[in-house]
Amino acid sequence: MIRYVATRLWQSALTLVLASIVVFVGVRALPGDPALAMAGEEATPAQLAIVRAQLGLDQSVPHQYFAFLGKLLHGDFGNSTRTGTPVTDLIATTLPVTLWLSAYAIVVAVIVGIVFGVIAERFRGRWPEWITNGFALIGLSVPNFWLGILAILYLAVTLGWFPASGYVDVVANPLKGLYYLTLPAVILGTSLAAVIMRQTRASMIETMKTDYVRTANAKGLGAGRVLFRYGLRNSLIVVVTIVGLQLGGLISGAVVTERIFALPGFGKLTLDAVFTRDYPVIQAVVLVITLSYIVINLAVDILYSVVNPKIRVGGSN
Amino acid sequence: MQQDAETPRDVEAGSGGTTQGTERTNRRSILQVRNLEVSFGPASSPVLHNVSFDLRAGERVAIVGQSGSGKSTTIGAILRLLPGSGRISKGQILLDGDDLAAMSESRMRSIRGRRIGLVPQDPMSNLNPSMKVGAQIADALAANGLRGGADIKRRTVELMSEAGIPDAQRRYGQYPHEFSGGMRQRVLIAIALAGEPELLIADEPTSALDVTVQRQILNHLQTLVDARGTSLLFVTHDLGLAADRTDRIIVMSEGRIVEVGTPAQILLAPQEEYTQRLVAAAPSVAATAAATVAPSSSVPAAVLNTGAPRQVAVEPILCVRNLRKEFRLRGQRGSLVTAVDDVSFTVARGTTTAIVGESGSGKTTVARMILGLENPTGGEALIEGKSITGSNASDRRGLRRRVQPVFQDPYGSLDPTFSIERLIDEPLRIFKVGGKQSRLQRVAELLDQVALPRTVAQRRPNELSGGQRQRVAIARALALEPELIICDEAVSALDVLVQDQILSLLADLQQRLGLTYLFITHDLAVVRQIAHNVVVMKSGKVIENGDVDQVFLAPQDDYTKELLGAIPGAAFAS
């Protein structure tokens, strides 16, 4: 297991370096000039040159990259070209918002998805399945932003059950914080919930047909125990894999959701940075997103081996 | 070819079997099945017709039949665990007077495990892969009313030890994938006995296991059942096994009971035509019969051998010399497993040599090396003096033409998206034999040779039964007019009657085309039926090698004796 984790960590580090190179070269290939954005439309060529020199943009790209890497190793992402704020500060204030939002969305999606999936399997061909299938269809086909707007209109504005926008720090005020995040989390989690539901349903249908479920029934076990310990547990192996693959999409989904609900999160930071060609921020944002993908995948792999004892590396043979 | 059909045919309701008197007639009946009829789907015709039989306390009864005969459906009905849309459409299943067919599902749950235990068929698929084996047995105990974690654990370990699992205390916390097939079957037996049921249903409990392991487990099961006075309903396709293990045999075919009787009645004086055919085809019974009576006696099985020349042919077509194969164990640097260890034998042209051994004996690895699918670590396998792996590309092509395989699984070895014509034609196309028209003509000839109607050419594998598919696989192997055919467990997945037909076909083809067979099998009965020479393998080594009659009548090695002794049905041979 230790060797496995070591290998995975080494691969992750390599992925990060490669991602940093791609994004570094990538942003510089984009049309647009951060110096122009900073100095203003009326700036003279001389002024622009000064700004460029300040930002280090007059150097060659490899030179700039190694300077960036050197600072990065000290935990320094540089300063935003737009506001001058240290990028690390920007990330520290916006990332928690997105993490809370994503975590909340995952929890909602997993619970709703699995419960609906089990219902759909248990009531195959009857009305509860039609309802859950309907939810899944909506979750998969209606875009997030449209659902978000509908939710704000009806649940927030008309009914007044939830706030339409805004963010309260979850750590400082957990109840109010989560309350403010509920609507965005539900909207963000919808498509994931739909995927989980369909996957759970399909996988449960297969599992409930297996020999070991029949044997469990032949033991005289109660229906619930057969369903959960024998059916659901083995179905989750597939579900976990799918969820892992889908989580990446959650982060890009968060960009849109944060925009709709005016949440001061990572998504908003990303969008603003891209529009203003804020190179240091874009680089940092991409690296953080890459890192989160890596962490999520690692977590899924570890979770997978918990659910499925067969692939536990170097098991207790 | 009708016997090849995998699905039960609908026949008119036959007469229900009546229970014959046995030495246990004076005991009370605990299970009475009355005019049982099972249907699938709402409007379809039934797959079980009028099945009636009794099971007395402490009695052991076997249900024998081929796949599709309705034997598994019968036990599914008794347990009320019919797959899919299956339902009991008529009749009664009385357990001590209570009708299981009409019972509510929740009451049924209190019957299962506690009063009727099930030892299922396939040990590999019947344990929950994500749950420790101890917990799975404990589950059964808890469902049957045992309370208290410590008590349950103690009883679980006890049950595991009773079922013959060594070191139960430690193995309690292991997962199913850490157990061998035989050990998993023991776990399943422990589960079935956890509720101390009065009736135990064993559904082909050992058909997936090697013959010596099978014997150990069945002996053990019998001891446990006898000690408890449990009644046993034993479902099997193996007539010899049924005869060895039970007091009474119920023969089923196409959803109805054909004949009921004691093992002696069924095996020695079968009344119905179907039973007679089944007895004649049962390789295990026939093989031991041949072995105990006389080498040249014409018991049914020997019929196959009459055509092929018995004397040792002069020129060997295949010569295996000091063949050796080592596999590196994954994740453990430097540790090697020797799968094949210094194996040497020769196969004479026009004869059949069987390599027999249990799983893990290295017999398949030998076959793969001869076919050039695996590189030997040492030694060589020479086909007419040339080795596939040691030759240059053009020689190799030539050799591949001369050696063709037929594999075990007729479902997995045919591409499901190809038509039968294309499947048989494929080797011809690869070796660019003839033009399109002549190739099609050849496919038709090949279908004739394997006794398949020419009309199957346009069908796809999934429309064919297992036996028909194996005929297609043979036709494909024959397409290039090979001299040596390597059959890797080519008949082990088939029902006895179908198996018999395929073996006859192979013998017939050998006679007509002068083919040489290398027959890889775990089934000594099949060896007896088809082979001239036999190579017995164990743990990668050749244990014994010689003429079939010699090996069967005067085995030299203890392991060979053990294998021969484990063939079921020996008692009814003479």
Number of strands of chain A: 0
- The neighbouring-strand order within the major sheet of chain B is 6-7-8-3-9-10
Task: Figure out the total of helices of chain B.
Answer: 21
Apparent shape of chain B: globular
| CATH architecture assignment name of the largest domain in chain A | Orthogonal Bundle
Average pLDDT of chain B, rounded to a whole number, is 81
Radius of gyration of chain B: 25 Å
**Sheet with most strands of chain A:** none
Computed over alpha carbons, the radius of gyration of chain A is 24 Å
Shape descriptor of chain A: globular
Written account of the structure:
- Chain B: Belongs to the ABC transporter superfamily.
- Chain B: This is ABC transporter ATP-binding protein.
- The complex is a heterodimer of chains A (about 325) and B (about 575).
- By secondary structure, chain A is mainly α.
- Chain A has two domains: about 50 residues, no CATH class; about 220 residues, Orthogonal Bundle (MetI-like fold), CATH 1.10.3720.
- Helices cover about 75% and strands about 0% of the residues of chain A.
- The two termini of chain B are about 30 Å apart.
- In chain B, helix 6 packs parallel to helix 7, helix 11 crosses helix 19 and helix 15 runs parallel beside helix 17.
- Chain B is built from 21 helices and 20 strands.
- The interface between A and B is medium-sized, with 28 and 36 residues.
Outline:
With 317 residues, chain A is an all-alpha fold. Chain A has helices at residues 2-29, 34-39, 45-55, 61-73, 87-122, 127-141, 144-158, 174-207, 211-218, 223-260, 266-275, 279-307. Chain A starts with a helix and ends in a 10-residue tail after the last helix.
